[in-house]
Amino acid sequence: MVFTPKYRRKVIYNQYRSSLGEIFRRLCSYKGVEIIEGHLMPDHVHMLVSIPPRISVSSFMGYLKGKSALMMFDKHANLKYKFGNRHFWAEGYYVSTVGLNEATIKNIYRSKGIIQWMISS
């Protein structure tokens, strides 16, 4: 899945980057979602996750984007001046299902030189 901050602002760096990594790991663990790969770029997020069948992709994305935005604004009050109205993420997201080609997706992420923030055990 791929999603971006509102107005595709380049805000995912330094302390915001580490905060988002912690927040995503915590929120995913609450729902029983396994993060297989995750990459935080300055203006977007890539995540390869395993979502249990009982949770729809759209409900999980709503939960992840909504709760992470609230948690970011609580932790970093200065963000409200950049975004206002507590809208951290842009509307929409890109999701594709991965079947037997999971290893291929992992290799694509790694070969692009994208800095990795989470590797599952």
TrEMBL record:
Which InterPro entries does the entry link to?
A: Transposase_17, Transposase_17_sf
Q: Which GO terms describe its molecular function?
A: DNA binding; transposase activity
- The Transposase IS200-like domain extends over 2-111
Q: What biological processes does GO assign it?
A: DNA transposition
The protein here is known as: IS200/IS605 family transposase
Q: Which organism is it from?
A: Streptococcus ovuberis
**Organism classification, top ranks?**
Bacteria, Bacillati, Bacillota, Bacilli, Lactobacillales
The UniProt gene name for this protein comes to: tnpA
